[in-house]
Fold each of these.
Amino acid sequence: MRRILILLLTVGLGVAACNASDDDNADGVGVSNGETAATVTLVTHDSFLVSDSVLEEFTEDTGIGVEIVPAGDAGSALSQVILTKDDPIGDAFFGVDTTFLSRALDEDIFAEYESSALDEVPDELEVDPHVTPVDHGDVCINYDRAAFTDTPPPTTLTDLTDPAYAGRLVVENPASSSPGLAFALATIAEFGEDGWLDYWEELRANDVLVVDGWEQAYNEEFSGGPNAGPRSLVVSYASSPPASVDPDAEPLPDQAPIGTVLGSCFRQVEYVGVLEGAAHPEAARRLVDFMLSPTFQADVASSMYVFPVRTGVELPDLFDRYAELPDDPYTLEPDEITPDQREEWIEQWTDAVVR
Amino acid sequence: MDRRRGALTTAALAAVPVLFVGVFFAYPVAAILGRGLFPDGSLDLGALGDVFRGRQVEIVWFTLQQATISTALTLAVGIPGAWALSRMRFRGRRIVRALVVVPFVLPTVVVAVAFRALLGTGGPLGSLDLVPSLWAILAAHVFFNYAVVVRVVASLWEHLDPSTEEAARVLGAGRVRTFVSITLPALAPAIAAATAIVFLFTFASFGIVLILGGPGLSTLETEIYRQTALFLDLRTAAALTLVQLGAIVALLTVTGRAQQRYATAQRLRATTSIARRARTAGERLALGANLLVMGVLLGAPLATLALRSLRSTDGALTLDAYRGLDEVRRGPVVIAEPLAAAATSIRYAVLASVLAVVVGGLAAFAIARGRGRSARMLDGALALPLGVSAVTVGFGFLVALDSPPLDLRGSWVLVPIAQAVVAIPLVVRAVTPAIRAIDPHLREAAAVLGAGPRRIWREVDLPIARRALLLGAGFSFAIALGEFGATAFVARPGSTTLPVTIYRLLGQPGPGNFGVALAASVVLMAITAVAILVTDTERLSF
């Protein structure tokens, strides 16, 4: 027994030692203002992805390393940042989107910063001096082309209540899913606060299926997804068509196997900001600038399946070929989506749709 | 003098677990509760009143209901299973013993995928239309917790001296009467321990309820997650957490009493002399029925999962998904490295199980030595983490562990620590009954022969506890491997674990990612099975 314990302890300590040696920092590298930062810490959500070479370029240019701290899904990550605002867990926070922005601004978690690179970004995306837009993803209904050879696919939200589409739509629960919430907001933007719940009554009458998250909706229920489920319409993203094409296929198909209902899209913009009270504010500002640079912006489509905010950035080939973007997506102003308002909408939706 | 020294030793043994769970559980939970209960510096219990109105009452009621039914069902299926694995010798027994534990340690996302693959639309049992429903939740809960009942109960059953039962039979008691009046009371401590664990797990079940219950069914756990992570409404979350804590304390008090009442010294025997081949037709039938239940209940979802991982989108069999285990790329971006994540998971799990066995083992000896109320309280206190929301603990870490000497936020160390906190109660519950059941005559005999207390501990208690400790180590390792709670809600730099990787792959669009996620789940299952096989050293005799 003692031998086993000693063995376990040795292994344990060995593991600990290995881990400890991983995070010894390099020597401090000078940044202007006399601030010394070897590493800038970016708090973000679990879906954040970036090519290694892109971050390496930042480190080469500035001498600043980047530590990525994923903090759960988008909602949970923001809650953690708010909870720790007196003693921030990082220098910058990326991943607050349109639906959560008002809470972030109410809680004063961000310091003001206006990046000079914002010149290259359309003005309508700049909503507040505390945050910098980085990308946008459009939440849209996708359809499985193979299932719409006889009937045409729907083109608007109203079409979805047509009996021709009965039993075909799967959506996510707005209480637990970010695209689910965005789609609910699209219906509020279209039908107004007085009419949206009536619309959902009609969707219910048309046998809409509500599932908990995007994974189930797309992977399991959607006929164009990996499990070839029974439903041919799904709430997903404008970037889903390029994602559905096998990049190694030769020749590449003319059309992606799934299409986008352009009249159903809600635009979600994702923002980054320098955290108030950050240990390395100057390094954080350099990182914000870099996230608007052509290098980073060109990477967001292939890494996170979202669209860059910077104009004139070249998209990856598959996006170029297969992604369709709406000209006039649904939007709501961030101050229309206050935390209380959002909670009330979710409660109303829950009462009307899943009870 | 001797008694006083004994009490001192017990207190010293208890100090380590009390300190550990105090710092890494009670303090963080108290800190986050404090934020909700004292929003402006003064106590505000208004939210507690709101909890007992309308929707929240439904949630509390449903939580208790589903946990009670789940626990009862698991016991009904698990106790016969424990008999089969402790009393019957059959070919493949060791493998079966290891395999039954696999479901228990799978991440909920994987279990949910497996159950949806089996019961969902298009699955082999899709026509039953069970997803989403309460039935799907119950089935998954039994699947998940079967191992707890089987293994905890079997670990005692396999040491019960059968001669008492044989004596009862000789004296004319029937099978049923013998079981009810001899075997069941002897097993009561283990059954009570298993009941407590299963109830706590199902009471605090998160992913299963969320994914298999559908959007209409909420439990306390899913509601606390919503209020904390999504709305940051700490006031409501704190009120719900108090209700959760109240229910758990009540349950632990009841099961703790039961454990104590029935904990009598029994003559334990080495398992090798007890398990035997099925002799009568009835025994063979019972054994066969149990193996069939295990095969269907545990095998079907896992087999569906494994088959799915081997199926390409057009239905052909392929190993493509397994080729992606090294690295999943999308152009220049590495989305996931499942094998590297598996290595990380193993490292964390080794650390977590060392922590859990040391801390939990000390606690078990302290609890077994002290018989009074303080022992019961320590036992109960250590079990609390099983029933409290992972998101409460995770957010508590953020608020509480932010200043020296405990400035651990954002440190990888929190991952194995959080895993150990969840594993400790299982070690305690696996080890305590075994120590309690040690025949005091053994110790007395050793003392008469001149052995000091330390030597008695080393040569009597420890060898008997060793198997239970090893079982606890295996459980801890497996739990840490599959843990997807507190660590998923905590900001954590650096290496991702395998469950997190699986979850990420499931959330990524792209034709191949789903398959790789399933293949990674199969790998996780395999590592778990091996870990349990290695620690389940049935052949070592003591």
Amino acid sequence: MKQNLILKAGLIAFLGVLAWGSTVQAAPLDDLIAGAKKEGTIEFYGPSTLGPEGAQAIVSAFNKKYGLNIKVNFTPSGNMTRDTAKVVGLSASGQPPEWDIMVVTDAHHGSLWLRKLQKPFDYTSIGVDKQRIEYDSGTVSVANQFALPTYNTKLVAAKDVPQKWEDLLDPKWKGKLGVINSTHHFGRLAAGAWGDEKTLDFIKKLAAQKPLLTRAGEMAQRLILGEVLVTATLQDSQLHEAKESGAPLAFAEKVSPVVSPEYHVGVIKNAPHPNVGHLMVAFMASSEVQPAWLKYTGHTSAYVPGTAAYKFVQGKQVIYMKQDQADKVDKISRQIGKILGFD
Amino acid sequence: MKVESGTESTVATWEGWSRFLPQGVSVFATGLSGFLLLLIGLPVLMVILMSLRTGFPGETVPFTLENFSTVYLEPRTYEVLLNTLFFAVSSVSITLLITVPLVWILMRTDIPFKKTIYVLLTIGILIPVFLRTIAWILLLSPRIGLVNKWLQQLFALSEPPFNLYSVTGMAFVQGISFVPGAFFMLAAAYRSMDPSLEEAAYTAGVGKLRTFLKINIPITFPAIAGLMVYLFMTAIAVFEVPAIIGLPARIHVLSSLIFTSTTPSTGLPDYGMAGAYGAIMLALGLVLAFMYVRLVKQGKKYTVITGRGYRPREIALGPWKWAALAFVFFYLSIEVFVPFAVLLWASVLPYLQLPSAEALANMTLKHYWEIPQHVGLQPFINTLILMLAVPTLTMILSVLVSWVVIRTQVSFRGLLDTLAFVPHAVPGILMAVGLAYLGLAYRDIFPIYGTVLIIIVAHTINWVAYGTRTTNSVMIQVHRELEEAGRVAGASSPRVLWKIVLPLIAAGVLNSWVWIGMLSYREVTMALTLYTRNNVVISTVVWQFWGSGWVPQVAALGVILILFAALVVGAVRLVLARIGEIGEAA
């Protein structure tokens, strides 16, 4: 009987804790929804590949989920670096930002974080997985890019496809190799698996190969045309587009480790619509958003089981950047850029 | 025939003119100078301030010389400076090699198809420079260039004969793209050139080529020299060709360093460094601007004014017209036909490929259908606003400045003329960064940041130098007798300007209006620097597509725009032809 009583009391206490917990979780969510309803609009900055249609698709799903009627103004990224600088400039001059949320790479959010320009929020309180949250609760990881050496499948024989990073240093690639200006790919290797010394040594040897240098999109075109046969890195977004158009590009998939820059979303400090912003950030972390990301950008999250990115990383060594590496990646990437001849 | 050695003598001897100089003119000229000083001076001041600071617009940071010490103590800066000078000199040389004979052929001879050639010249500038550059990569790249491959096969060469990825290659592409602008600037000088020496040479039995080399070129040398300086200033500031051909091969020029400082591949922009690099360009530009003004003044001594309806006789080319046509066709091929063919080819492919049977089999029109989905309406509206507002404002300012400079005796008119030319000494990218800095740091005072208006301001400042050069040359050719008659009849100064001067210079002004409208349409560097969601224009869309690797989509957009523009330009040219002869004084 006494045992039974203790059991009942324990059960009641457990249910009580559960109920309290759900109230705690519901309260901030309810507050955000109520606030979002009043704000009514979201200024959304994101990758140009997402486009207004992709942004609208995400916001429609968002409205459906929370019973809202939020209007979206989407700004496609022309240049993430310049636009990140614009946020810094507006803040420095005491002006509000143009956007509520920004979906940019973790490196760009790192630049904002170093200047405390995100508006942090306890996203775990509204159900976001802790693993997805970065930059002192300022951002949430939405999708992963992958960067690997890439080759023209029509012009490079299977036996010549690079198997490891060092294969890029083979003299046979001299004058036939490209390097894109995303030098942070190597910066991430330096901050992660390789360390400074190995990375800089590799970069110096890579520079001696006299690679053709340019931006990623342009490099993809030059690779398709055969101006270069291999690029040291290219992102999966370029491969996604190539696949769509039937262009002959492929990753050298045996190369390891794989570099994975992430798209993060965060609410900008002094954003005009912070409630919609935070609610949208939480929504972006859900698996419901992944199909739209895949459809419009070709990217998905490696943290969400079942997605293409999740499957891709299984069994691979993948380099992710954490917030404590942001400053280092920024500095060493600049050094790498100088060695290669970008600056 | 009347030879004028500057405007002063005529003005001084014209009795009626004294009535035209009430205090009001000085007040007006002072106001105009003050306005221009503000319009041009503020962004330039921002560039100077920027170079003396680290950090971001709006941040309160102390002044420092750190940026200058970093830039000027670095030996690489001087290597880049040498590259820039070599690139600029080579580009200008290539432009002049084509432009001078082209102007002579079209302005002084009876070559057939003149109107068609004018329209094609105008269309040439509508093809975005970077697409033209891609065309040249397809032809002259050492690895994939079709011309290289054909020549290697034909002559069994082990190495490709041309390497586009060199300063010479950059200069070749840039030099060709300067030709239409240079043509319209030089055309006025050739049109008003004294034909008596030329005719004397022919009478003496001297051949056409020898006459061209020994008479035409020396007599128009001041105009050519002025153009040379003008183009040189443009060449040190251009960015697209150095970015697409130079950067991949690690060939840096000053403009590419400014661009990489403001748009680094990682981290945040370094505006201070951009300002310090820009200071070199600014200093160089000011020296060149001084030289230009001097050369143009000198040029006036040799110019025959054709105000009494005088027209030099056209030279009959006879059988030489085929050679002349071949030359023009060669130029139009490399300027218009080949780039347009590449554009057309790229626009119907699923992805960019060299010509092959496989590529032919995969041709598609889907990029044309998808344009509305990718672009939307706003960029077209904004571009249209730019194309109407920029030339209108520029030409209003230019006419007013030229009126003061050419038609009044205001003591500081030379200063006003120089002031109007100063923007040409400031590279567009710097001007835009200065305006952006101004808009961001002092947003409450100048609430134009993020609007189309800021691009209109940037473009107007940028082309007021060009506008005033053309209105100066047009206005100087209009005789004052009609104005005097108007004054005698009791018309006020504004009425004389509106009713007499403007109709007389309408053809030249409209010509420049069209030209500046087109320059504004294709300008990308400033529009990109000042770009926000609300002021996106076609040129920034094109650049973004290119950056994303969407070449077929850009090509489809380019083809549609060029065909549309060809119709518009053709129609405008027809209208202009009814007002006055095409190309007049432009």
